[in-house]
Amino acid sequence: MTVKKDNKTYFFNSKFEKLNHLYQITKEDKKFIDEKLKSQEDYLKSHVISFHDSDLTRSLYDMNYGANIKPEIYFSEMNNRVNTLLKYSKEIKFLQSIFITLTAKSEHKPLKSISIGKNRFKMIDNPRFNGSPDYVTEAREYLSESWTLFTCKRVFKDIKEKYGERYVYMKTYEPTLDGVPHLHALLFVPPEFKDRVIKAISASFKTSRHDIKTDFDEDVGGVVAYIMKYILKSFKNAKENKLDDVGYWYAKNRILRFTTSRSLLPLSIYRLIKGKEISRNYLEMSKKYKNGFLSYSYVQKDFYNFDSLLKRKDYHITDIYLIDDDYRTYEHKLLYSRNDSYDIDFYVRSSHEKMRYIPPKSAPVPIFDINNKKIGYIDGVRTVLFSTTKTPEYLNNVQLYKYYYSLDVETVNLQHYGHVKNVMIDRGLLNEKKQCLNDYLVSKEFGF
Question: Which of 260, 286, 311 is the last residue of a domain?
Fold first, then answer.
């Protein structure tokens, strides 16, 4: 196979036929990915949500933000994030931009290039390759872990102590000719920390090839143009709504096209409020979020999940609260599957056979505060708040032990008692089996 890229010609000459393809994407890969995306798109378009006593309907496709399903929308949203991060970095005086390219180890690369003439290269088998069939995933994980370790350096702690923020960055992965990813990252820091950060880069990536750039030509767009050059490579055919070879590589290997530091309002929250005029400015909403003028409440999706280390995806956001510059409070209520205020119909457009979801009336819904601490629950129309200042998960073993045996089962909220007991069992302080908290609604027989 022959490939022309950046005015250079590459000839693939591996002993293994599956490696003689650009980015290791074969015709079979493209056919499989096209079929999967078509099936997914058809599913999303045919499944519709409607609301009881309302003419409003939305297909799942309308609410999708996927890079492979709606590349134009994804790119527009990503462009907004890039511009907002740049504005934010200027506001907090992180004016020094550092562009970093990090390459995977030689052992992750199945092929290497050798020069056979002017701008002509042959891609041959790499004798240092470790032979792993999952080399793309392993290379990405190596780059990701290397970046994480780098951002934990002391210099960033010092930056936070002075400025209240560790760093601002955006990064993207790009495939090399043999499909192995390398990482491009644009980092913003205060100018006086430039030298220390560059030393940290060199110290962190000793075993990997890396490049650093700190000067950018403002006549051709400066630092924005530099990072966008790499991001745009994955969106060549966004307007035609089809994938190019790089797009197939992202889809096949399930690699995120673009990630950033957690400097702004979480994207999942911003997507829920950006339709309103008052909350459309991403930078302003991010500042309100950091200053406590934008908050949200949420409930656990699966009430029967006893795991105390639940993640963001395990909750439904129910309400978003925004305080404007005149200290007026706006409440944005959201629909979710346990919401008793609406009947949600879910049906296939072609058959119009509705599948009505009926919220479970008997299952109490936990209440969490803004710090993800469980502070009570809602049981029908009854709201019960726990009287403890700390939830059991935040008590040490001695505190938890004393608190558990101080509870009076005749007067305490029974589900709270059950929750404390389950935490005791989790920590090995009680040799019993955990019980569903709903069991405590119908029985006082605890079996001491």
Answer: 260
* Same-domain status, 317 and 370: no
Residue 446 forms part of a structural domain: no
Query: Left if phi > 0, otherwise alpha if psi is -120 to 50, otherwise beta: which for 179?
Result: left
Give me the amino acid identity at 431: N
Sheet architecture: strand order including 210-213: 210-213, 96-103, 181-189, 168-175, 259-260
289 phi, psi to nearest 5 deg: -65, -45
* Pair 390, 410 in one domain: yes
Q: Report yes or no on 18 lying in a domain.
A: no
Strands 344-348 and 354-357: antiparallel
Are 437 and 315 within one domain?
Answer: no
**Tokens read off for 392:** 């059991």
- What's the rounded Cα separation, in Å, for the pair 94 and 96? 6
C-alpha–C-alpha distance, residues 10 and 291, integer Å: 53
3-state secondary structure of 115: strand
Whether 240 and 327 map to the same domain: the answer is no
- Same domain flag for 179 and 35: yes
Over residues 118-144, the pLDDT tens digits come to 889 999 999 999 988 899 999 999 999
Q: Which of 388, 385, 365, 363 is nearest to 376 (CA)?
A: 385
Look at the chain and count its residues: 448
**Closest residue by Cα to residue 67 from 243, 290, 277, 188:** 243
Give how far the C-alpha of residue 9 lies from the chain's centroid of Cα atoms, to the nearest Å.
37
Q: C-alpha distances in angstroms, 162 versus 93, 262, 265, 342?
A: 11, 18, 22, 48
Are 279 and 328 within 8 A, CB to CB? no
Q: Report if pTM > 0.90.
A: no
The residues, ordered by sequence, that sit 6+ positions from 446 with a Cβ below 8 Å of its Cβ are 409, 417, 421
Q: Which of 65, 48, 66, 46 is nearest to 57 (CA)?
A: 48
- Report the C-alpha dihedral over residues 417, 422, 435, 314, rounded to 10 degrees: 110
How many domains are there within the chain? 3
Cβ-Cβ contacts under 8 Å for 263 (sequence gap 6 or more)? 85, 88, 89, 165, 168, 286
Q: Domain of residue 315: give its range.
A: 267-344
Same domain, 250 and 159: yes
3-class DSSP assignment, residue 136: helix
Over the stretch 172-231, which tens digit does the pLDDT of each residue have? 999 999 999 999 999 999 999 999 999 999 888 877 788 898 887 765 457 777 777 777
Tokens of 239: 């307007």
Pair (87, 183) in one structural domain = yes
Q: Which residues contact 192 (CB under 8 A, 6 or more apart)?
A: none
